[in-house]
Amino acid sequence: MSARRSGPAGAPGGGPGSARDEILARMRTALEGASPAPAVPREYRRALDAGTDVVAMLVDRLVDYKANVHRGAAAIEDALAGARRVAVPADLPAEWRRGGAEFVEDRGLTVEELDGVDAVLTGCAAAVAVSGTIMLDAGEVQGRRALTLVPDHHVVVVRRDQIWGHLAEALPHLDPRAPQTWISGPSATSDIELQRVEGVHGPRRLDVVILD
Amino acid sequence: MSTDIVPAASLIPADAPFPKAAKVALGMPQLRANLAHATGTIRGKRAKVAAELDDWEQLRDTAAAIKATVQRRLPELAVEFEKHATAAGATVHWARDAKEANEIAARLVREAGADEVVKVKSMATQEIELNEHFEAQGLKAFETDLAELIVQLAEDRPSHILVPAIHYNRTQIRDIFDQRMGDAPAGLTDDPAALAEAARLHLRRRFLSAKVAVSGANFAVAETGSLVVVESEGNGRMCLTMPETLISIVGIEKLLPSFADLEVFMQLLPRSSTGERMNPYTSVWTGAREGDGPRDVHVILLDNGRTTVLADETGRQALSCIRCSACLNVCPVYERTGGHAYGHVYPGPIGAILAPQLEPGRHDDLPYASSLCGACYEVCPVKINIPEVLVHLRQQGPHEAGERAAMGAAEAVMSRPRLWRAALRAARIGSMPWRRKGFLGRLPFPGSKWTVSRDLPVPPKESFRDWWKERER
């Protein structure tokens, strides 16, 4: 589509008189004689203090934002308690498929099918302790975005080696060009009198299983 | 027991000068109570989570410098973004102004075979009045953010950047849902959890069947061609994931050089805006991805006055704004008047420096909607020196004949020592009857222009010059 070089106003691409060229020209004119950009200081923290118990911190922050936390693969069954049909990415390891639920692999499930399951079980790409954030980047054991969005209950498994103290440590472990979702607690809103209420459009229940 | 819904925006004239509109807002006790409660709550949350980081000031310094760099490198970064987004399968459009952006968006919706869209909360689309344009074109835009939904159902206008319905309390919101939603559950209470549940039910079918979504973006990463949307409810994820076509309207100032810069901004933004360590959901996407999310991905890069702001060496720092709204929440003026009185989509301190620059000549009164107390500068996560820009814009704006005459006279007197001494003496003697009261509440015209909204302190018994002379002796 980007090959379209002419056409109606606002069609993508450049060329004389195009919006693109005019905006770029306006920018250059505006910046004529501007003072140079300052050097960017990088004095901020990029890691937590050595010796910080990042697992304990992650648990604390997850609980603070009303996520349920479990430890060990055996706890996946507890996290899935009550769910009869559980959607999973096709590459989810067999040892995570625990309990009596029926595991439905996502091989192009329709929206209605996704809406019909009781829970979804996935892994993640990274987790950040200081903010209680679980990060997905559509990589291994994570599936596509709709899979972890439509079901009302998300159970996510975090390996110990995926837990980072600080955001700056976790970011290099994400694929920047892949679709990402960073999750910090279940869906919430503060739109009514600035009071935080959990549970709007995303999964209303978030269970995190930490594999030590 | 429910009452009639009267949108606040219908009472506060949008086109009136700020002092007049503010006076109307100040006369609405429920509005003031709602605002004081909400801004007070959020101020406390922000202060607590900002204090958790021992490198908060260093983060602000870095963010300010990154944004200043982006402004200087804007042409090259915009082209870099376009290149990478296009390579990843997105189509990048450029819009000189609101009209052009709206026309592109409307055309894309029709090309997708749709006549309605779901929307993620976006200041850019409010700024260009996309919903109104769509309606005129026979297209319908459904707001999906809870606060935007409240405002849309109430046929009101947003009054806050982050929480557009900040001027409504829970009971008023219950009434709006009850009367306007159509499918509100019977016996709906004003419990915020019940209200959120009602919104979930109301929008779910629409999300799962929407063909086209319209969003803005919090950040656009030049290095990768990625867009970032920061949200809480999951309505953003729904809009960005479920439809086949996604149209994102992004102000050119939203660019960041690299993906790693998010390590700075994603610490500052959530803590400054909602007072959370991290917002519940952040979505990052780069073009289109086979089998995951929208197949037809469009980005409209929007100028709409931004390059004019860029040309002003002092004023361009307003383009660093990441729309966190921390400055609104600490502003003593905003807290009392609310957003509608500003008559622009960007209210509060940031609006007072952005609106007059984006629309030159239309909001010259806004730089005066401030006491210059500087609280906004202190909380700004990207360190925009708002008081500095306010004073700069006051100097540049028009000054009425009376003010010019008064300043001219003052200059003439103050630059002549003998005249100045005589004037001080005259003021001292003339104000003697009010000495015990300590201030002058009302002066005759033209002094009344000053005293109509301020008291004038009585000149001291002895001037500094006289005191100094006496001391020297």
How would you describe this structure to a colleague?
The complex is a heterodimer of chains A (212) and B (473). By secondary structure, chain A is α/β, with parallel strands linked by helices. Helices cover 17% and strands 23% of the residues of chain A. Chain A is built from 5 helices and 12 strands. Chain A has helices at residues 19-30, 54-64, 76-79, 111-116, 167-170; strands at residues 68-71, 85-89, 102-106, 119-122, 126-128, 133-136, 153-159, 163-164, 180-183, 188-189, 197-198, 205-211. In chain A, the strands form 3 sheets. Chain A has a 6-stranded parallel β-sheet with strand order 1-12-7-4-2-3. Chain B has 473 residues and is an alpha/beta fold. In chain B, 49% of the residues lie in helices and 11% in strands. Chain B contains 23 helices and 12 strands. In chain B, helix 3 (29-51) crosses helix 13 (262-273). Chains A and B meet through helix 1, helix 4, strand 9, strand 10 and strand 11 of A and helix 3, helix 4, helix 5, strand 1 and helix 6 of B. Chain B: GO terms for molecular function: 4 iron, 4 sulfur cluster binding. Chain B: InterPro entries: 4Fe4S_Fe-S-bd (IPR017896), FTHF_cligase-like_sf (IPR024185), Helical_ferredxn (IPR009051), LUD_dom (IPR003741), LutB/LldF (IPR004452), LutB_C (IPR024569), NagB/RpiA_transferase-like (IPR037171). Chain B: It holds the Pfam family LUD_dom.
